[in-house]
Amino acid sequence: MFDTGNTGFMLVATSLVMLMTPGLAFFYGGLVGRRNVLSIMIQSFVSMGVTTIIWWAFGFSLCFSGGEGGIIGNLDMAFLRGITAATPFGDGHIPMFVFFAYQMMFAIITPALITGAFSNRVRFGAYLLFLVAWLVLVYFPFVHMIWGGGLLAKWGVLDFAGGICVHNIAGMAALASVLFVGRRHVADAVPHSIPLVALGTGLLWFGWYGFNAGSELKVDAITGLAFLNTDIAASFAGPTWLLLAWIMERKPKFLGFLTGAVAGLATITPCAGYVSPTSAALIGILSGAICYLAVSLKNRMKWDDALDVWGVHGVGGMIGIIFLGLLGSTAVNSAGANGLIYGGGDFFVKQLVTVIVSSVYAFVFTYVMLWVINKVTPVRTTEVEERELDESLHGESAYEQL
């Protein structure tokens, strides 16, 4: 009944996307101080458990059941009701269970991205409330509107693998979180382990092939295009950031290359299956430069986005959607749309409006959400807790204290 090749490929892609969340934990863990490693890493890992429960209970149904042309779905498939191992997804090439698992991995990593912005400053209990509320009020509606046949999909908005649904809304939520919780009492002077950051980047880059190529949901020419564009964008963005850092900071910094590569991966995500490899190279160069400038702006504005989530993921996702509106081509993918340079002015406007709406929505809902949670339980850590976060919050340490 099912296509074994497509099903096998999607299981591999699902596994790759799952690997990205531990990769993110290593990436973030290396960037913070050695006394705060576990507190940032547990926030990524705990999403793997909590989000899975929510996704099984009602999240998948709200995203992909009913609600055609609307903002949110219904509960017809809550607790996987009515779905068996023989239930097909879409055109019947893969089981619904496989699609369920693949999309679940996206739901797991998206809120985890936000945690890098408020590292060292949020209590674990408040984070758990935030994780659940943010999924329900921000992530699920946008997934439904774009990938679940909702309002934005009906309008003609495109997002191949998560420029809006993942990176832009997570980045804007990160900025709202930073402005709500304020600056750290004790800022980490330098990353405690750049090798850990490199390990995390490698896992993220590797997993991103499943993230982007897997979003075609089958094996065909567009799958190969998305895979290639993913690597090209990252490979151009990393050296671009490295070069800018070399010019501006007088040193070719390894951390700059790693951050730039992730910016390129985030930016190509919405475009991966809709643009040519040449466009992907251009997007990589521009993403490395623009995201570098965004992080520089953040520093000048003294926003304490500890791990540059807004500058890399928020801005990367934002400009990726805009680049799709500029460079998308039906000659590349007939299921896509022509961007502005190919005569698709209407499509460009739709992408631009969606970026603005999603950014405002994610920012406002996140800020209000944190305000409400703070009425229930304190969100912000104390200065004493911040100095020894792993021990004070979790009673554990990543390393033997010197």
Brief digest:
With 402 residues, this protein is mostly helical. Helices cover 68% and strands 1% of the residues.
Outline the structure in words:
With 402 residues, the protein is mostly helical. The chain has a single domain, classed as Ammonium transporter fold (Orthogonal Bundle), CATH 1.10.3430.10. It has 14 helices and 2 strands, in the order ααββαααααααααααα. It has helices at residues 4-31, 37-64, 96-114, 124-147, 151-155, 163-181, 194-213, 221-249, 254-268, 277-301, 309-327, 345-376, 383-387, 389-394; strands at 88-89, 94-95. The protein has a two-stranded antiparallel ribbon. Helix 4 (124-147) runs antiparallel to helix 12, helix 7 runs antiparallel to helix 8 (221-249) and helix 9 crosses helix 11 (309-327). It is globular and about 55 Å long. The model has no long low-confidence stretch (mean pLDDT 95).
Distinctive features:
1% strand, 402 residues, two-stranded antiparallel sheet, Ammonium transporter fold, mainly alpha, globular, 2 strands
Q: Major sheet: size, sense and barrel closure?
A: 2 strands, antiparallel
Radius of gyration: 20 Å
CATH superfamily: Ammonium transporter AmtB like domains
- CATH fold-level label: Ammonium transporter fold
CATH class: Mainly Alpha
Order of the strands making up the biggest sheet: 1-2
In CATH, the architecture is Orthogonal Bundle
What is the percentage of strand-forming residues?
A: under 5%
End-to-end distance: 60 Å
Overall pLDDT metric: 95
Q: Considering DSSP H and I runs of 4 or more, what fraction of the residues is helical?
A: 55-70%
- The best one-word shape is globular
Number of domains: 1
